[in-house]
């Protein structure tokens, strides 16, 4: 009896959210440089003081006339604001106190006790249990495969979704590459749920699942994702140790073997876009790349989900040259994206999974940047999960149907 009481006590003990890394009075600025002079000023500022770029994801991508969002420590915020004013840059402050936003999102107390929900952000333990459950409940439609382990030893689960008959065409769907982009894993979960629950009811989905398989990786950067739930909500990279540096982590989306380490990536382990010590230096990258190489004969599409900015992008990022099927990619995007106001070639960057997949021969490769336009950015409220996932689902079905029709 004593034992039982003790055990229950453990179960219901409220797990207060107190992430080790706090963001008291840290600010997020939105700046819109008007011309090259102002762009250069921002670049100089970024080399003089530490700015964490939310969007675009690095200083290399700053362009006159478009918004730049970055986070600044409380210690530097006044200095940065003064510099912006002195140089007559247009700016607004999106968040005055990031810590408050983070606490709002976790809503304190019982967050970790709540059940898995498609309308909430789920921590990694809940996602693992969900992968197991959804496979068990849909044995003819979903199976779970472990494709390897992360740096910290967590199993990397992939869900194979589709009617199990013979060799099928495959679309590979990757979520959760950058840890703090929580809406991305939320979409992968939504996708699997929608696929299984609308099979036999929705004509388009039924046809897709009868004729092809989706390989869904709900969280690519699991170690980083866990870190955003336990230590630092704003973490982006993976959690590997780097030799010769105290800084942790590599940007997995700069670590693929495609023009590695050239365009818009960094060889400084302290940077958010650090490309790793070599292409595929990261265990997670290697596991995925190996899995995809092993399945190239069937994979026809590769779709990667990030946030934020509501854009749909396609190769190339590492070169300005056009992808051979550029026109097809553009047309498809034009038809597919009511919720995505703009579409672009990938931002200049090397070592991105998308370009890599494309050059491996997967001629349909897309990156979604999900909601929003920056009002909340990475702190997108849970109330936006449903509309985000619904509009994205439409676009993904459209793309998948096109791939089915055009890629034998
Ligand atoms: C750049 O824009 C700022 C603000 O509009 C303006 O004051 C400045 O003269 C411009 N510089 C150039 C070189 O056009
Ligand atoms: C994370 O990055 C480090 C540093 O490049 C790498 O050594 C490690 O294997 C990566 N971890 C994973 C899980 O890929
Ligand atoms: C990474 O480095 C830290 C500090 O040196 C060490 O405590 C930790 O065990 C290392 N982690 C791994 C997985 O090697
Ligand atoms: Zn991202």
From TrEMBL:
Coiled-coil ranges per the record?
none
Domain Peptidase M14: from-to ranges = 120-403
Carries keyword Disulfide bond? yes
| Cofactor(s) of this protein | Zn(2+)
The source's superkingdom equals Eukaryota
**Entry keyword set:** Carboxypeptidase, Disulfide bond, Hydrolase, Metal-binding, Metalloprotease, Protease, Signal, Zinc
Name the Pfam families for this protein. Answer: Peptidase_M14, Propep_M14
The answer to keyword Glycosyltransferase applying to this record is no
Q: Which InterPro entries match?
A: CARBOXYPEPT_ZN_2 (IPR057247), M14A-like_propep (IPR036990), M14A_act_pep (IPR003146), Peptidase_M14 (IPR000834)
Active-site residues per Swiss-Prot or TrEMBL entry? 369
Which family does this protein fall into?
Belongs to the peptidase M14 family.
Q: What is this protein called?
A: Mast cell carboxypeptidase A-like
């Amino acid at each position: 009896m004593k034992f039982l009481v003790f055990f229950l006590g453990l179960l219901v003990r409220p797990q207060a959210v107190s992430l080790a890394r706090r963001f008291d009075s840290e600010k997020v600025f939105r700046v819109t440089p008007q011309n090259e002079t102002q762009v250069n000023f921002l670049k100089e500022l970024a080399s003089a003081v530490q700015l964490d770029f939310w969007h675009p994801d690095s200083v290399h991508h700053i362009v006159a006339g478009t918004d730049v969002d970055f986070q600044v420590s409380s210690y530097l915020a006044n200095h940065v604001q003064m510099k912006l004013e002195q140089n007559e840059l247009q700016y607004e402050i999106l968040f005055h106190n990031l810590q408050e936003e983070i606490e709002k999102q976790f809503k304190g107390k019982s967050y970790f006790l709540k059940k898995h929900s498609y309308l909430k952000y789920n921590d990694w333990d809940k996602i693992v249990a969900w992968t197991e459950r959804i496979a068990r409940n849909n044995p003819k439609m979903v199976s779970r495969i472990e494709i390897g382990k992360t740096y910290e030893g967590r199993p990397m689960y992939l869900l194979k979704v589709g009617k199990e008959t013979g060799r099928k065409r495959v679309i590979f769907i990757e979520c959760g590459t950058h840890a703090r982009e929580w809406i991305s894993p939320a979409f992968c979960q939504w996708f699997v749920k929608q696929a299984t629950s609308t099979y036999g009811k929705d004509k388009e989905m039924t046809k897709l699942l009868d004729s092809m398989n989706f390989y869904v990786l709900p969280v690519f950067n699991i170690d980083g994702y866990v870190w955003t739930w336990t230590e630092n909500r704003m973490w982006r990279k993976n959690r590997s140790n780097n030799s010769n540096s105290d800084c942790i982590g590599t940007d997995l989306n700069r670590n693929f073997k495609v023009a590695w380490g050239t365009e818009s990536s960094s060889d400084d382990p302290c940077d958010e876009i650090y490309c790793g010590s070599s292409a595929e230096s990261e265990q997670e990258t290697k596991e995925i790349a190996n899995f995809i190489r092993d399945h190239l004969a069937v994979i026809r599409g590769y779709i990667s989900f990030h946030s934020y900015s509501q854009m749909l992008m396609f190769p190339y990022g590492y070169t300005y040259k056009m992808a051979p099927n550029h026109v097809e990619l553009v047309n498809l995007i034009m038809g597919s994206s009511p919720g995505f106001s703009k579409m672009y070639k990938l931002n200049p960057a090397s070592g991105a999974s998308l370009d890599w997949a494309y050059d491996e021969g997967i001629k349909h490769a897309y990156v979604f940047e999900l909601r929003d336009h920056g009002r909340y950015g990475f702190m997108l409220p849970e109330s936006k999960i449903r509309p985000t996932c619904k509009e994205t689902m439409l676009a993904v079905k459209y793309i998948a149907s096109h791939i089915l029709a055009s890629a034998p």
